[in-house]
Structures
1.
Amino acid sequence: MIRIDSLHYRYRATSQPALDGVSLDIGRGGILGLLGPNGAGKTTLISLLAGLLAPQEGGIAVDGEPLEAWRAAHPTAIALVPQDYAFYPMLTVAENLDFFAGAQGIPRRQRRDNCAAAIAFACLEAVAGQRVGELSGGLRRRLNLAIGLTGAPEVLLLDEPTVGIDPQSRHFLLNAVERFAAAGGTVLYTSHYMEEVEAVCADVAIIDHGKVLTAGPLVEVKRGGAPALNLEIARPLPDLAADWQARFPEMTAVGNTVDFPEFPADALAPLLAELAAAGVAVERMRYGAPNLEEVFMQLTHHALRD
Ligand code: ATP
């Protein structure tokens, strides 16, 4: 549905481009997880898709039409749910929704229907008359989503929609994203929570320094990674720790758990022999296909929450 082709974008007064030749496809009804370390270019890409910024080179097409032309024909069909809360705390939930629907130029009758649908979708009926300033963090996140839905969009751009909320609200939001896609909606989802992306996104793209490092179905992206090693040992690493860290700089050792996001097969037997010689028993070991976080670290050399 959305084709992003060789997109470049550089902010004025910066020497490095924020996006440096990004090409991606997002299929209709799909949920694409967009991952990248801080400063990778995720918000810039979302801003270009939302029309807040204009491409400097390259292009975006929707259903084969240039984004601008498509947007002119479907003015409310792409909605951005921003990272920050974007509503008026002194207004009620219903008043906020009506205001933002009005700001999109939606006629009064349709506005009422769209707002009711958004309230129902985000399960905000019980607080519709309440001032937003009085709501919990989880309900505010749900309102942020509901505001994004007031234009009855086909595409939702979600910029870290679950930051700072409790597990129950997080679960609600993830489920809402899945419901939106199941009903034919298309989603671009950025998050720093790898387990969320693994749970809801069939496709992922990992970007860094404005470039796509890998993109495709989640299973294929994981299959494309190098093997990883996770060890649970009987006690924290002894003197070996410094030596291992020097040999495997991306190793992390926390308590009795030692993780190597990338580990060569021929180094496995010698490593286990070193542990045995140091008198450290291995209680559990996983070696093989990496999870998404390990692929991310292999490609970006960052933990996602760095
Ligand atoms: P984060 O995860 O921290 O939100 P991000 O992946 O969304 O990061 P962007 O916000 O798109 O990354 O930033 C990409 C690059 O562009 C960074 O180097 C950033 O410093 C730079 N940048 C972003 N906004 C501006 C701006 N308004 N002016 C100048 N440079 C900017």
Note: Residues 228-288 form one domain.
2.
Amino acid sequence: MLARIISGKEIAEEMRAALVPEIEKLKQAGITPGLSVVLVGENPASQVYVRMKGKACEKAGIHSDTIKLPTETSEEELLELIDRLNADTAVHGILVQLPLPKQINEQRVLRRVRPDKDVDGFHPENVGKVAIGDPTGFRPATPYGVQQMLLRSGVEIEGSHVVIVGRSNIVGRPMASLLLQKDKGGNATVTVCHSRTKNLPSVTRSADILIAAIGKARFVTGDMIRPGAVVIDVGVNRVNDPTAEKGYRLVGDVDFEGAKGVASAITPVPGGVGPMTITMLLYNTVQATRQWAD
Ligand code: NDP
């Protein structure tokens, strides 16, 4: 069997195109969606992500503003900036790019963002809302994107056994919350694995849908996948490749070559979950703006 490729890139393009008229409608009602992205320091990967988010906003018609602060910024200074953005009526969504420099307490910063502008969905209020299935909560962009990919590529979620490898607050845990919900895109039986899980391959082999969010290049091998399972690869890892222009290339947490002969469908890296994450950030920004239009 050769797995069907679930192209996040294509689904993301369709979803972004569908958002444009919605944004147009808000503009006609006098509100231009506005997203402020805060970047502290010089992390090269963060700089790339922030640039990609800015470009995607611009293309969709969302006003986006990137505020760059030096590495030595104090927590106090960052909190003051967030207070200003919280109060700014032209800013509907606030995103603080992680990771933050070590002198800044990440949780304190995430809690300072107004929950109704927290388009990343990391404020405890939104985490709680998502956990109890309250649709006014912002769903974190990556798991929200994975859920949309599954839905839009016709994968049966309801009743399926989903195994998620990874329990981070950004991916694994909210992914479990979304797929557990008693609603469309939910109703799955969910198992969450992590570094202390015993006999991981036997658990992953019991999955109808296997979601890898580990952060280790090609960790999930073909023999860890049940024949016919759907495999979603969230991982983004750099591996050295002297033949590549930059000297490295991006690979997922799944050994794509080994997995594609076993799975029934699989997401590629790049071009899989990544574009969906940015798309769902745009959706969350529009959701945040709509609150002010009603
Ligand atoms: P974290 O490092 O926060 O979490 C990794 C998780 O994997 C942890 O729960 C950890 O377990 C688990 N893990 C690590 N080693 C093993 C192992 N040997 N066996 C089983 N579980 C293990 O990573 P993130 O969730 O932030 O990100 C995961 C991946 O997804 C990364 O590659 C990241 O780059 C990528 N990513 C991609 C995005 C996209 O848009 N495409 C967005 C966000 C992330 P424990 O909790 O026990 O330590």
Note: Residues 142, 165-168, 170-172, 193-197, 200, 213-216, 234-237, 253, 273-274, 277 surround NDP (CB under 6 Å).
